[in-house]
Design brief:
The chain is of the alpha/beta class. The chain has one domain: Nucleotidyltransferase, domain 5, CATH 3.30.420.140. A hairpin with a 3-residue loop joins strand 1 and strand 2. Helix 1 crosses helix 2 and helix 3 packs across helix 4. Pfam families: RuvX.
């Protein structure tokens, strides 16, 4: 069963997909969105769900460090409701505190990626970390 991981922001959605066994996550794409204009990139998300035979979507919840939910958590939950309603796939949520920080650290330390290039891939890497965390917790 393939699982999709999403890192939902106000301007982009990072997308990762698991392998068929659900062991590893691979960042695949960044979908541009515009929350202010009510453009959520759902057509592209639907194409990726269909093309990859996704059976479950995991969306990162960017909780505050004290475990409270701010406006981005509410936005991520709204996005999850839209995905569930439009594509009829189960949606689960994964705590994603510090995944963007970790993604940036990985890109700097392991890949020595420039700041300009990091901005172009960070959401995809964050989606990969969100999904990998979910996979690790559910296979252990």
């Amino acid at each position: 069963m393939k699982i999709m991981g999403l890192d939902v922001g106000s301007k982009t959605v990072g997308v990762a997909i698991s392998d068929a066994l659900g062991w590893t996550a691979q960042g695949i794409e960044i979908v541009p969105i515009n929350e202010d204009e009510k453009e959520f990139g759902l057509a592209r998300i639907g194409e990726l769900i269909t093309a990859n035979d996704v059976q479950l979507v995991v969306i990162g919840l960017p909780k505050n460090m004290n475990n409270t939910a701010g406006p981005r958590v509410k936005a991520s939950k709204r996005y999850g409701k839209m995905v569930r309603a439009q594509f009829h796939v189960p949606v689960e949520f994964e705590d994603e505190r510090l995944t963007t920080v970790e993604a940036e650290r990985m890109l700097i330390e392991k890949a020595d990626v420039s700041r300009a290039k990091r901005k172009k891939v960070i959401d995809k890497v964050a989606a990969e970390l969100i999904l990998q965390g979910y996979l690790d917790r559910n296979h252990g």
